[in-house]
Amino acid sequence: MLWDTHMHTQFSGDSTAPVEAMIESAIANRLDGICFTDHMDYDYPNEPDLFVFDIEKYTECMKKYQFAYKDRFPIHIGVELGLQPQIADWNRNFLSQYDFDFVIGSSHVVHGFDPYYGEYYEGKTEHEAYLEYFESILENLAVFDDFDVYGHIDYVVRYGPNKNTEYSYKKYSDVIDEIFRQLISRGKGIELNTAGLKYGLGHPHPTEAALKRYRELGGEILTLGSDAHKPEHIAYDFKKVPQLLHDAGFSYYTVFQKRKAVFYKI
After folding, report:
1. 185 contacts: CB under 8 Å, gap ≥ 6
2. Which of 104, 116, 157, 186 could pair with 80 in a Cys bridge, judged by C-beta atoms 3.0 to 4.6 Å apart?
3. 24, 54 in Cβ contact below 8 A?
């Protein structure tokens, strides 16, 4: 029995999923609770409004369902905040407008390009593109850390020319370890994101080796998320989560409520 705390609805530019359908799917999957984390990616390249939602409409809708299900199923209200150094102040102002339960900070745009698109990789080797992605996380951390966990740390490998065929934590361990150290020192966590399994990578985000290293370095905050954009992807491959956590050295996972970490035993 687990919480899925990374999912998207019709409020995200890349989803059309009705809120109620996501809730009912979570209940059908026998989850303990969920947190909605729709995309807020200000200054997204080429389509600046694609991942910007009306915070008033968003919170009004989520509160309506939170109330409707209050005696049946716990629902938290969060956001997945797209991070870029030049919008740090904008993100701070946005977060000041509502007391979310949970804030995921994620890198979807690197120096003006989303690794989802092939143009990000033009003129670079795959290794250079991946390294640039990881180094950009450190650039974000240098100017902004008002989030609870950093989302899908190795998101870039979903979309690289060879995906993770030639990728491993070990190849990028120096920069990934520094990311982990920075997060741990700031009291921030990471997530176990099962979308890597959905995308056919054979591993979650981050990989098992990276999860283990995060724990070895003293990382304690670890949330769980399917990154679902459709009801059928809620709790994707969560049956594997207990073993993944055990193998990485965790006996618990984390859920945030009003930005405070609550730890649940597996």
Report:
1. none
2. 104
3. no
pLDDT tens string 81-115: 999 999 999 999 999 999 999 999 999 999 999 99
Query: What pLDDT does residue 89 have?
Result: 98
Residue 113, CA distances (Å) to 47, 70, 82, 89, 98 in order: 12, 41, 13, 20, 29
| Percentage of residues of the chain with pLDDT beyond 90 | 98
State the Cα–Cα distance between residues 69 and 19, nearest whole angstrom. 12
Domains of the chain: 3-265 (3.20.20.140)
Distance CA 163, CA 121 (A): 12
Which pLDDT tens digit goes with each residue over 168-195? Answer: 999 999 999 999 999 999 999 999 999 9
The CA distance from 217 to 213, in Å, is: 6
24, 231 in Cβ contact below 8 A? yes
